[in-house]
Amino acid sequence: MKQEKLLEFQKKTGYEFKNTDLLITALTHSSYSNENRLKKYMCNERLEFLGDAILGFVVGEYIYKKFSLWPEGKLTKLRASVVCETMLSKKGRELGINNALKLGKGEEHTGGRERNSIIADAVESVIGAIYLDGGMDEARKFILNLLVGEIDEISSTVH
Q1: Residue 56: which H helix or E strand, with range?
Q2: Which of 17, 58, 87, 133 could form a disulfide bond with 143, CB atoms 3.0-4.6 angstroms apart?
Q3: pTM for the full model?
Q4: H or E, element range at 138
């Protein structure tokens, strides 16, 4: 990925990577890794795993504190509405993550760049990469900047 594209994407995220290799890995789909015979860990799947856990924790912590009088069931519904594929793919498109992804030719030709699951997974991968590069405070800041507006909006519809 060209340096200027990396800088542009980092600007949109509000986080500047010390180790841009983490960002490159976060934006590398397994189809690209497979087609280019890269090692299995040279794609975003492991970062996605980590990012998913961090995302759930940060959103859970935030809504637990913000909605201190809500019962567990209502908190669970809100968290599920925020960390779902639909929301993450929407936010990923706003960041332009779909345009920054490294996809294999097959995935590119079958519309992978616009596939919600791929975009949502990449958002989680970027979260994992930010966590590894800058720690929990930076990951939390990224997640909350990305999702607080959505949390506030959705919270009024949760019953």
Answers
A1: helix 45-66
A2: 58
A3: 0.93
A4: helix 136-155
